[in-house]
Amino acid sequence: MAPQNASAKIGDSYPMPPNAVDDSSILKDILCRQSVRRGDFTLASGEKSSVYVDSKLTSFRAEAMPPIGRLFLHRMADCGWFPEAVGGLTLGADPIAFSIARESLETSHPIKAFVVRKDPKVHGMGRVIAGLEQTHDLPVVIIDDVCTKGGSTAQAIQSAKEAGMRILGAICLVDRCQGATELLRDKFGLRLESIFTLPELLAHLDTLKASADPIGARV
User: What pTM was estimated for this model as a whole?
Assistant: First the structure.
């Protein structure tokens, strides 16, 4: 796929990791074992749900960080997005952005990570964006952990736009498929991609239970 809205400085793409299938399988197992919970929950959007995904129980694990970084890099390349930096609203996006930056060292174009604060810093330079010296016209991809309605992703996008960043698109680790895609498209004209959808994870969890395969056995 030819790059779209890519930085003019980048002429190549991130290579397909040789173990991409294994990365996806391993990460899916970790998410199912560590992060997917059934019960009665209230989501950040305020809606009730019988399923909760606590992605931080996965994204903060050492063994999850390399596959997270590689899978996000590959998805960006597949979309034709070649950013200079990646980041999103703290705290959920932070370990994902750091994992991407670390794994990008194995490519021909290392990229930076940044953090979008929920509120401006009250001292120093009062910045909302942390980790970058210059942000004007910087091509970036906005990262999130779990998207439901898309509110936190939209907040990060708005802050990035106000900082002068050029946003190529957004990617989340898990899309609950409850309106985030439509919000970003209608409000910003941006595309939301995901590494997994919640229906995919639930189907995988059911398959593991049905086969009596211990969840995370391959981790």
Answer: 0.86
